Amino acid sequence: MRKKAKTTVQTFENTNWINLRNDKMIYDKQTAIQRNALTKSLRFFFEKEKFLEVETPIMVKIPGMEPHLNIFETDLIIRSKKIKLFLNHSPELQMKKLLGANFGNIFTITKTFRNGEIGGNLHNPEFTMLEWYRINADYKDLMKDCEKLVKKLAGKNEIIYQNKKISLKTPWEKFSCEELFQKYCKISLDQNRTFKQLKKIAEEKNFDTNFCKDWDDIFFKIFLNHIEPHLGKETPTFVYDYPSTQAALAKKSSKNPFFAERFELYIGGIEIANAYSELTDAKEQKTRLIEEQKLRKKLKKTIFDIDGEFLASLESIQQSCAGIALGVDRLFMILMDKKNIEETLLFPLNKILN
Amino acid sequence: MSMTTDIKKGLAINFKNGTWLVVEAQFVNPGKGGAFTRAKIRNLKSNQVIEYTFKAGESVEEAEVNRRRAQYMYNDGATFYFMDNDSYEQFSLPSDIIGNDKRFLIDGIECYAMHIDGVPTSIELPPKMDFKVITTTPGIKGDTATGGSKDATIETGATIKVPLFIKEGEIIKINTEDGSYVSKAN
Lengths: 354, 186
Prior knowledge:
The complex is a heterodimer. Chain A is of the alpha+beta class. Chain A contains nine helices and 13 strands. Chain A has helices at about 30-50, 90-100, 140-155, 175-185, 195-205, 215-225, 280-300, 310-315, 330-335; strands spanning about 50-55, 60, 75-80, 80-85, 105-115, 125-135, 160, 165, 175, 235-245, 260-265, 270-275, 320-325. By secondary structure, chain B is an all-beta fold. Chain B has one helix spanning about 95-100, and strands at about 1-5, 10-15, 20-30, 35-45, 50-55, 60, 65-75, 80-85, 90-95, 110-115, 120-125, 130-135, 150-155, 160-165, 170-175, 180-185. Chain B is flat and about 50 Å long.
């Protein structure tokens, strides 16, 4: 057995939690103790990897432009003057501003907010996000980070989630979006790049494209019904190289610019993390933000300004870098074998629906 | 026939040549994509349960299903017998259709029977039901080694987890879907 690093911090992996799971109680103190141990372990991990922890704001003037997200709004009132503020849905823009200021490797653990995301097992409108950014790195380096981090937290080579064994033996399986569509649907995304083409081939193969208004809608309807259920079942799975339309802040793949260097991590069928090789070309980033702004308008969502400070920061990022957002509540669910995100939170908002 | 865009729990829909009951509907937001609704639907004839993800705002055809109040009477292991509350007619359903709901059935308990074309095809329990605790160990104050919960056997014979302060003879509210403790009944 490997010797554990000497530390006075009680870490997640050395806490005795085996007999404590599956107890669904109101204000479950044992789960809170485990959660606390997890947070400490996350900090300990990144400290050892020489990352600097930074704090990012909850309220921001300009949130990220993600076209489909609904954002909470509030007003800052100064005497009679009102300034609109938004609850951050991701600390991404702030993190990249710090990269531009030459902070090096950084991480943050913060609350993020998404309006309307409630109901079911996996969502709470406010949730805890862990983001980390590595310099002189690309998304493949972040895959290695994920493997190392989850294995360390689990403290063993195998976990059981909802009665199913998941082997954590590395390397974990990796599939590109193109491979997955070929494998499960016999459809090539690369050869069907327009809405018309993709709709035609999907319908020929009897896939349901009802109510799909654009290329991405068809992608997701097929992905959610016919691909996602297969992911991350026996081992964690990285799905990588997403269509560029779904990765506005990521660097395009040098091999095929129809795809971007983005991955998502699935464990036990649950989406845990989303990562990019970061786009640092400010000019291209501006063009993409304008596109997304237009899309938000089309989808009748609140329109945000383009963050000039963010674009300026990109210009001063010297090295290649990669960043990742990981849902801490969901990670905790998996490690603790909890079915519902509610069980990981002391004050889940879902409760107000009952 | 009517159309609805609101796929929610309890809704009966016509889909893929069958009549299905939505047993679970949850919001899904695939990274960087639009909103979808992932539904768990149960075929009202075969009892087969599948998952399907609809685009949010997608119209589905609502099925004509009658939800009629019924009373559970008894079972002989393979078949469960009920009585319609209005017509007093008896009907039966095979055990595998009742499925996991068995653990909450006790003589005389009220539930709903789902009728398609006038034929009862399945039952539905109220989402929360009250049951008496028959046996449980006395809770020890400050005992956190068990995570603040203990086993209790309710009047149907089912065993569920309850907080330490629950005593024998008390009436508690249970979520019939996942069998979890909700609260003390008032």
